[in-house]
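Regression test case RT-17, inverse folding.

Input:
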């Protein structure tokens, strides 16, 4: 029996050896480990499985070339060109209208004059990009691509031009969702932007400079993550890339080597108005969350803590007896806010939120904002030399007292947007909440206010020689003005008071 068992064992080992020799020259491709993360919603027919390009073996330059070809071929059918039209009334076209801001949003807007009875009607035709995220017609793009458009059309990869409607927009992140009634569209799989690493290959796809260059593919790397304070949106956590993007690329996808959407191309930093190797994209995880909220409810609700915060530098850390500069320092705690109810105090340093280290003010602000109101979060804080843990139930950000339509009318007239002072704005612009009642939040780079020198974060102290005591009073003053009038402002910027005067 022992000899018979040894014979069987020898045959098994021989079979294994032969099998190894046969298959040792073959290479296998395995699915990505994170495929489950791209499933977004069962309600809007989204792509729920990633491609497997990232595991494709590369043995020759031809294989390397073929990999990029396959990634482009997979993602390009999901990219659409977006056309918009809006009619405005103007007395004249300023020559400055044709110059972009230092952070060009690369949204093409050719103009066509239509002489009406008053000779002031003007049709603005815009061109941007978008990416299909569901087979039943949902498309992700930028808010500034479709903002205030009277008509929106898309052109698909198979050259069909279809009218689209806006499902919802979120100016605070510059994300919008539109929809077309077209079946069998090819949605792109949405990847995990948090998993991106600096140095990874990425591909940008869109319609730069015009419709004739639709679905242009450019390649680069992830240059940085978590870019903020760029001045493009209220909530910024941009992916920076050197993939070439230009006017018309707005709203198009940034794709990883697995053919997944990891960002929505939004803007470039440029001193010339053209591409200089610095582009920004909204991370797919942020865009996905905004999209889901807009589709389900038509709006975006954000969590609110109710504090002003600042970064902790080495000197502050020494003053607070912290071992190292970490976390964020609490300044003002708003009365009747979740922070006050949860026990936060001025001088506390928030070290962790739900067990995750807090690196800076931008990260905490974005994390709180994307947490649903009503959620109880655990905050680890440093207070008087000891660590404490507090439970805080987040609330919803208080509504602004002015309707969006009124704000837009004011912005169109003034060339800038202002808002009542709040803890959120104070934190964003590093202001004291008692610095004033009205804060400038957005200045049109093509307008007279910008050319006069007004900037985001300026606190309006007086308008037309009247001290500003409330946001309502400010609206009352500017509401009486009309196009061509002179607006005389006193603003506080840092420790200085500055006057600005310009025609509306």
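Golden output:
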């Amino acid at each position: 029996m022992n000899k018979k068992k040894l014979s069987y064992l020898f045959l098994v080992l021989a079979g294994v050896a032969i099998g190894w020799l046969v298959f040792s020259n073959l290479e296998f491709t395995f699915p990505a480990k994170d495929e489950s993360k791209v499933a977004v919603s069962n309600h809007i027919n989204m792509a729920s499985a990633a491609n497997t390009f990232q595991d494709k073996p590369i043995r020759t330059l031809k294989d390397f070339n073929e990999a990029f070809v396959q990634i482009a071929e997979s993602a390009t059918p999901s990219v659409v060109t977006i056309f918009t039209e809006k009619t405005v009334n103007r007395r004249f076209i300023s020559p400055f209208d044709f110059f972009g801001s230092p952070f060009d949003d690369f949204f093409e807007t050719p103009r066509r004059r239509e002489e009406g009875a008053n000779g002031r009607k003007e049709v603005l035709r815009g061109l941007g990009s978008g990416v299909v995220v569901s087979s039943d017609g949902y498309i992700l793009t930028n808010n500034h691509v479709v903002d205030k458009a009277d008509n929106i059309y898309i052109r698909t990869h198979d050259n069909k031009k279809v009218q689209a409607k806006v499902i919802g927009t979120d100016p605070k992140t510059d994300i919008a969702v539109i929809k077309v009634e077209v079946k069998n569209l090819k949605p792109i799989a949405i990847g995990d932007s948090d998993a991106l690493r600096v140095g990874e290959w990425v591909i940008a796809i869109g319609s730069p400079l015009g419709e004739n260059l639709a679905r242009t593919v450019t390649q680069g790397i992830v240059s940085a993550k978590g870019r903020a304070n760029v001045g493009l949106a209220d909530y910024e956590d941009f992916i920076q890339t050197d993939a070439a993007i230009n006017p018309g690329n707005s709203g198009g996808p940034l794709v990883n080597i697995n053919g997944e959407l990891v960002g929505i191309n939004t803007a470039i930093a440029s001193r010339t108005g053209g591409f200089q190797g610095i582009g920004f994209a909204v991370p797919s995880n942020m865009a996905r969350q905004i999209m889901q909220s807009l589709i389900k409810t038509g709006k975006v609700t954000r969590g609110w803590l109710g504090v002003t915060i600042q970064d902790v530098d080495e000197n502050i850390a020494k003053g607070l007896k912290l071992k190292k500069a970490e976390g964020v320092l609490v300044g003002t705690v708003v009365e009747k806010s979740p922070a006050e109810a949860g026990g936060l105090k001025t001088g506390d340093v928030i070290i962790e939120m739900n067990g995750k280290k807090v690196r800076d003010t931008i990260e905490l602000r974005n994390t709180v904002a994307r947490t649903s109101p009503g959620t109880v979060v655990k905050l680890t804080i440093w207070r008087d030399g000891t660590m404490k843990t507090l439970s805080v139930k987040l609330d919803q950000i208080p509504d602004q007292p002015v309707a969006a339509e009124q704000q837009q009318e004011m912005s169109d007239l003034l060339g800038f947007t202002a808002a009542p002072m709040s803890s959120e704005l104070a934190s964003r612009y590093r202001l004291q909440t008692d610095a004033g009642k009205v804060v400038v939040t957005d200045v049109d780079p093509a307008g007279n206010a910008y050319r006069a020198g007004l900037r985001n974060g300026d606190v309006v102290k007086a308008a037309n020689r009247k001290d500003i005591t409330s946001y309502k009073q400010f609206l009352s003053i500017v509401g009486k003005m009309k196009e061509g009038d002179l607006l005389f402002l006193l603003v506080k910027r840092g420790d200085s008071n500055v006057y600005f005067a310009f025609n509306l």
